[in-house]
Specification:
The structure is a single chain. The protein is mainly α. The chain has one domain (3-177). It has 7 helices and no strands. The chain has helices at residues 3-14, 17-22, 32-38, 56-69, 75-106, 111-135, 149-177. Helix 1 (3-14) packs antiparallel against helix 7 (149-177) and helix 6 runs antiparallel to helix 7 (149-177). It is elongated.
């Protein structure tokens, strides 16, 4: 296998990884709770525990409390805001599913035919890298007002991951361009 094909394959395969955690959220947006309960503790060097895991009922209660905290005259907008949070959770998962389908299909194509995928996946990887670097506190790139300690650690760990994915996809993209 040529180095170019290996780099292309790695760029496509690594682009699939997010769907393994987030894909289910396309159908069940409340499953973000699963990530908070069973994945993020590892980013605080802790073992997940059912004793502190949020339940779906607790999650609903939290969302209801956020709605109740809204001023009375703004309840409709508050309901829409909570809807949008969960809707965008689903849309993000759909994006990861689409990337996965594209990457799997791309593995069956030649290098030239993969070029549009590497362009798109390279852009995604650069933007994901910037968002994670921002969460880590390394660069100004937008503003997330509620980054938790575990969220910061996710940023620290995944900034280099997305840098590698970006470099692989940009290298594979550049092969055809040169």
């Amino acid at each position: 296998m040529s180095n170019q094909l290996l780099i292309s394959n790695l760029g496509l395969i690594l682009s699939i990884i997010p769907v393994t955690i987030h894909g289910i959220e396309a159908v069940f947006p409340m499953q973000a709770r699963w990530i908070a309960n069973w994945v993020l503790p590892f980013f605080g060097l802790k073992t997940p525990s059912s004793a502190i895991a949020l339940t779906q009922n607790e999650q609903i209660t939290m969302l209801d409390a956020a709605l109740e905290a809204a001023p009375k005259e703004k309840k409709k907008n508050a309901k829409d805001y909570i809807f949008i949070l969960l809707f965008e959770q689903r849309q993000g998962a759909i994006g990861f599913i689409a990337v996965t389908v594209g990457a799997i299909y791309g593995l069956s194509l030649g290098l030239v035919e993969r070029n549009p995928l590497h362009l798109v996946f390279g852009v995604i990887a650069v933007l994901m890298m910037l968002v994670n670097a921002n969460q880590a506190g390394w660069i100004p790139f937008g503003k997330h007002p509620k980054v938790s300690k575990h969220g910061k650690n996710v940023g620290i760990m995944f900034t280099p991951f997305w840098l590698v994915v970006a470099l692989l996809n940009w290298a594979a993209f550049s092969y055809v361009m040169s």
